[in-house]
Every structure is written in C-alpha cells, then in structure tokens.
Amino acid sequence: HQQLFEKHLVLLRDGRTLIGYLRSIDQFANLVFHQTVERIHVGKKFGDIPRGIFIVRGENVVLLGEIDMDKPCDTVLQQVSIEEILEEQRLQQQAKQETEKVKMQVLKDRGLSIPKADNLDEY
Amino acid sequence: TNAERNEEKTKKNHPDDMWWPENGEDWSDGEGGTDMDSGLQAMAEEDEEINVHNEETFGMDLDANGTTEKSSSSLQFGEAPPSPPPPPPATPPPPQPKPRSPRRAPSPPRQKLQYFPWASSRQRGRSRGQRAALGRGQMFEDPAVMRIIEGRPSLKVTKMNLCQTRAFMFPPTHPCPSTPQTPKMMQLRFGANSPRPSPFYSPSNPVQPFRYPGPATQLHPQHKRLLSQKQRKPEGWDPYCNLMTAKEKEWITRLQMIQLQSENPYLEDYYYQEYYRRIESKMAEEELGIRSKREPPKLTTPYVKKTDSYTPVVHIEGSLGQVAVSTCYSPRRAISAVHAYQKDTRLQRLDILNKIEKLFMVLLEVEETERMKTPLLSEAEERRLVEKIQRKVEHIYSQLQHHNPLESEGDFIPFLLVSKGKKLVARLLPFLKHDSALKILRVVTTNLPTLMSRDADETLPVLYPPLRNVIGGLAFSQLIGVLKDLTSLESLTTYECLELACQNKFGLSLLYALLSQGEKLLSSGVPLEPSIGDFETWTDIIFQVAGQLSQCSLVEPLLLPSNLLTLFCRYLDKRTVHQLKSNMESVTGCLALPS
To answer: Chain B contacts of A66, Cβ < 8 Å?
Structure first.
C-alpha cells in the first residue's frame, strides 16, 4: 500500500494541475493532497506555486496519476519563478482571447455563431 | 411491495435504528429527485441529526442482533428501483440518537458490504441524503450496482475510474439473476475518528472475507505483476503515512473493482484490455523461445449474465422516428423506404463504405462472442454462442459476396479495394469454413494484379496471415487450382503474371506461401490425389518462378518459408538453385534455409 508515499498528479476540470502527496481518498474520489503544488505550464516553461493542503471534490477530477520518481527526467521543460510563469500565463490568455474575439467577429460577419465550449459544460 | 418488504426486513435487523424517517417518501425530493426545493427542507432537518463523525453515518454499525441468516435489503441489487434515483427503503425512526449499543460477538460475525457509487453531478442534490441512507446500507437499489464480490485486491489501484460513465442499466422490471444472495456480509471500518475499535477489526484479528462463488474481478495478471514489481520498502517513514488505514484502502479498492465489472470488458474497457493483451502476446513471443508451452495467465472477469434485452421500439429504415407496431387491432402500413439505385460512382463508394462499417460492427460482435466461449459455459450455452457466431459470419460473408447484382466487378472485389474492407475480410477469414475461405483466396489470386495496383495504402499485407492459414489447409489439386488462377489471367502470360506478383510484397509472399505448401504436401508422403495435368502445371510453374526469381530484383516478402530451397533443389540444377538462394537472401537479409 505504497500509494500514499509517492507523489500524485491530478488534473482538474478547470485545467489546473496539482502535484502533491495523496493522503486520503474516498468513494467519491475526493482527494486530500498534502504539500500541494500547483504547476502552471506555458509553452516550455513551468512554475510551481505551493498551496499547502488541498481537498479536491471528486467530481472536479479529470485524471489522477502517480508520479514515478524513478523514471529518468529528461524533460525539455524549464522551471521559472512564480511571477514569471504567472506573467506568461496572463499573456497567453490575453493572446487567446484576442484570437477568439477576431474569430467571433469573422463568424458574426458571416452570420454564424458557435457556442463557447465552456457553456456546453453545464448540462 | 419491495419497499414494504425491505422495511420489514430492516425493521427486524435494525431494531435500534434511530432517526430514519418512516417512509422512503420522506427521503425523496418528490419525483425522481429532481425537485430539489421541497427536499431541501427535509435535508436540512436530516443534517442536524447527522453526526458526520458518527460511525453510523458511514454505516459501520454492527447490528446488535447479528443473527439474521438471509441477506438483508442491503444486498438486493436485483430489485432495481422503479424510478431513478430510488428512495431508499426506510427503517423506523427512533426517538433520539441512541448511544452505541454494546456489541455482541455473533459467531461468525455478520458483515455488511457497502457500496457507494462515485458521485456524479446528477447525484449532487442527493448526495447527503444518500450518504445518510448509505450508512444504513440501504442504497443498494442503485441500478449501478450489479454485484458485490468479496475479493482481495490488496494492490495499489492506480487505475481509478473517475467520472464513471458506464451505464450499468438494468431494465427496471427484471431482477438480475446473477445477484449473489449470501448469508454473510462483510463489515468495513471507516473513519479515523471512530470512538471505539470494533472487536472484529483489530489488526490482529483480520476479518476473513467471505468468498463468493465464482470468479472475482481482478486486475489483469500483467498489471498485478507490474504493480508488485513496483512495490518496494518505503524509504523513511512519513509522519502522515497512516492517515488511511490499510483496511480503508482495501475497501476503496474493492469498491473500484466492483465498478470494473462488466459483461463486455472488451467493449467497455477496450484500451486496458488491449494494452495488456499486447503485452501478453509480446511476452508470449519472447517466452516461446525460452519455455515450451506455458499459457500466459488470462484475465478472469466475473461472468455477468446478460439479461435478455428486448427492443420495445421498432425502427424501420428510412422512417422518421418510431413506428407503431401494427397489430390486428391497429393495422398500420409499414413505411416503404425506396432506395433508388444510382449509377453515381461516388454514391456507390459511399455505399460500400457504409456497408463495411455495418459489417464491421457485426464482426466485432462475432469476435466478442468468440471470446465469451470459455470452458465455464454449459453445453447449451456454448451451442447457442456457436450458432450465433455462425449466423453472423454467414451474414457478413453473403453481404460481402453479393454486393450488387448489377455490379460487374465480381464478388468481394469492391470491398477488397477498400483498406478497411481488406481488414474486415482478414479478420473474418478465421471464422469461415474452408470452402468459403478458399473462395476468397481464389478471388484474391484471380484479381491479384487489380488488387495490387489499386492498393494505395499498402494494406494488402493484412490479408497475408489469414490467407497463409487457408493455404496451409489446401489439398494438392486445390493448390494447383489457385496457382492456375495466379498465372492464367486474361491478357497476360504466365510470365507477366508472375512478374507482377514478384514485384509486389504481398504478391511475392503469397506466391512463396503457395509454393511452400506444395513442397510441404509433396514431401509429406500423404497421397496427393492429383487431377490430370496437375503435376505438369506444378513443375511448369516452378520453372517459371525460378526464372523470375533469379532474374529480376525481388522485393522483400512478408515471410520467407524455409522449405522453398528444398523445393527448388528437387527440380533445378545446383547452379540455378545457388543463384536463387543468393537472390532471395540478399533481399531479406536472412537465410533461405534454416541454419
């Protein structure tokens, strides 16, 4: 029963990635994470924000996996500071919003409208 | 009724139950749990009474009278609720929360296995009510629960089925025949704040799970192996490592295993099954050299009997919506859908593609049924499955054969020109009787140039393994017939036919396979019963092939049979044989004769 000694990685429905020690689970897949870190990825950079103890409600989990510490880490990803990654993320979101705006305008000009994906989630 | 019966039982079993409302009605939010407003009040009242840290909330009570022999309502999976979500069967409400009763030690201990469905958004509104109900172990009318298995999967379960979307749907009126009604149930412990340890659950006295008859869901043997390999001694002690006890982990694991049950794992859990099947076959390949025959351990899943489903709705092709079935009291004209035949080639192609898709579905069913044939089946069952397979195979075969009477391309050809069609035929071949398979082989050989030239995706090789098996079952005359097909095509000489074949991977491999079979037959000593002219054709072809092989540059075949050179040695002089040998070997890079 080594499952709670290794670090786990969980991807949440809102897109956040949390890494930490999984201390407890229950039948609903509610998770208790210890020494949690929220990892933000932008391009090839990533940054870790320490979050402490996290309790995740099961319904918000997309996937959960164990991190194999033994596996050689030959990643091309580069760790940066929190400020930097947050800034990168902000820029990324901004760019995305702008392209989205342009796209919507183009579609509107042609009389089409595509519903936004986040609305579809509420069924 | 069910509800009343449950109530009766639970009254007997839990005489000291306290704060559960008398009727199931008081639980539910009205119809089907969708009407939240009226239920909110009830829930608010419930919440005051629920002590979250109370063991009873999580249903860890042992009953004071653990003498009931038959299973309580908690295991009545079969009786699915009349309407989802079901109101849990009720127990009589006590005046106030009672102090924990001293536990007697019934022998053997009564045990209760709880099942908690993974909460999904639809259960959001009811989760609290359910949780309380679950504490009583009365949530088992949940249709998602099929069966409780007492297994011992004390392994890490990294395969978590979150957001379980599989629908374990029972038709509401049919009780599940495979529900095990066992007299023993297991009680589990949960909750770190429980005031008092149960006398049955101390670590020194681990409860023996009662084994249900029949196989339990387990992880694939390969998976287990991988997990156990990964387990090692913990390096250093973590101050928080015991937040979850082993029992709790086991409990969760068991729950998840239950969810993995399905009557059709290859359908519902395809990627997991396929992944481990491939690992298995890879290992088997490696081990084949090392050890002689060791059957790789097969995954056992519980055989869940499929309840006979019926389609209440008749759907006629081309009609909009459902069609009322006509009876003598209400005759209704069937909608006649007219499919106008179009000469349009694009539509024809679409038609073929459509047909391939439909037939593929049938093929998948055939393969699935084939997989279900285990030694555990009864005779009647096995016969039924075999019949089912035969019926479907024949259906696919006849559909492939006669696509369109107006079509001039011949049987099977339109399908063989499509990549997926080739795959379909390749997977169908193992199921066909020898005659039918031979027919397909002859179609392939007769139309080999066409097939080879119109094989843009190079998917022809997918047909090689099954056709090789068919060739392996040919008698001499049949073999000669096939070779004749290959070499006597309209407007092409034998030489030209062979030339074409030798320059195509598939063609060459097929040719090799045929020759190899001939050699096998000749050297086997079995009486060949040849027809007139067979041997002449045979030797003629040998010479022609030898001529071909020694002259032109060869492509690499899919498989180089080991007895080819032996064959050539019979008929040809040493020099030619030597020439052939070097020619063939230079392409494949391996020896034409086994060392």
So the answer is: 156, 158
3-state secondary structure B427-463: HHHHHCCHHHHHHHHHHHHHCHHHHHHCCCCCCHHHH
User: Is the Cα dihedral B43, B47, B52, B55 positive or negative?
Assistant: negative
- Interchain pair A1, B240: CB under 8 A: no
Q: Determine the 3-state secondary structure of B377 from DSSP.
A: coil
A118 Cα to chain B: minimum distance (Å): 16
Strands A17-25 and A31-42: antiparallel
A27 to chain B, any CB pair closer than 8 A? The answer is yes
DSSP symbol at B389: H
The rounded distance, in Å, linking the Cα atoms of B267 and B102 is: 49
According to DSSP, the residues that pair with A24 across neighbouring strands are A32
CA B480 to chain CA mean position, Å: 40
* Residue B391 C-alpha from the chain's centroid: 20
Q: Is the pLDDT of residue B116 over 60?
A: no
> Best-predicted range by mean pLDDT among A47-61, B359-373, B543-557?
A47-61
Q: Which residue of A has its CA nearest to B191?
A: A26
How does pLDDT run across B13-36, given as a tens digit for each residue?
A: 444 444 444 544 444 444 444 444
- Output the pLDDT for position B63: 43
**Is A29 within 8 Å of B246 when comparing Cβ atoms?**
no
How far is residue B275 from each of residues A62, B34, B302, B361, B413, measured CA to CA in Å? 21, 40, 20, 21, 33
* CA angle at B483 for the pair B481 and B488, rounded to the nearest 5°: 95
| Band (B78; pLDDT cuts 50, 70, 90) | very low
Peptide linkage before B108 cis (omega within 30 of 0) = yes
pLDDT of residue B114: 43
ipTM of the complex: 0.76
Hey, what are B294's tokens? Answer: 């060791």
Other CB atoms closer than 10 Å to residue B101's CB: what's the count?
Answer: 13
Q: Which of B465, B365, B454 is nearest to B414 (CA)?
A: B454
B258, closest residue in chain A (CA to CA):
A27
CB proximity B252 to A under 8 Å: yes
Nearest C-alpha in B relative to A11? B162
Asked if A5 and B234 come within 8 Å (Cβ–Cβ), the reply is: yes
A102: its two tokens: 């342009």
Give the model confidence (pLDDT) of B511-561 as tens digits: 888 888 888 888 887 777 777 778 888 888 888 888 877 776 677 778 877
Beta bridge partners of B505: none
- Does B272 contact A at CB distance below 8 Å? no
DSSP string, B45-74: HHHHH--TT-GGGGT-PPPS-TT--S--GG
Whole-structure pTM value:
0.49
Question: Among B85-94, B178-187, B547-556, which stretch is predicted with the lowest mean pLDDT?
Answer: B178-187
Does B120 touch chain A if contact means CB atoms closer than 8 Å? yes
Residue B156 in tokens: 């890490």
The closest of B562, B564, B537 to B549, measured between CA atoms, is B564
Residue A9 pLDDT grade (very low, low, confident, very high; cuts 50, 70, 90): very high
Neighbours of A123 (CB within 10 A): 6
Would you state the pLDDT for residue B93?
Answer: 43
Please indicate whether, in this complex, the C-beta atoms of B243 and A3 are within 8 angstroms of each other: no
SS3 content of chain A, % helix, strand, coil (to 5): 30, 40, 30
For B332-362, how does the pLDDT look when each residue is reduced to its tens digit (9 = 90+)?
555 555 555 555 677 888 888 999 999 999 9
Interface of B with A in 79-118 (CB under 8 A): 116-118
A–B CB contacts, 8 A cutoff, strictly below? 63
Q: Any idea how long chain A is? A: 123
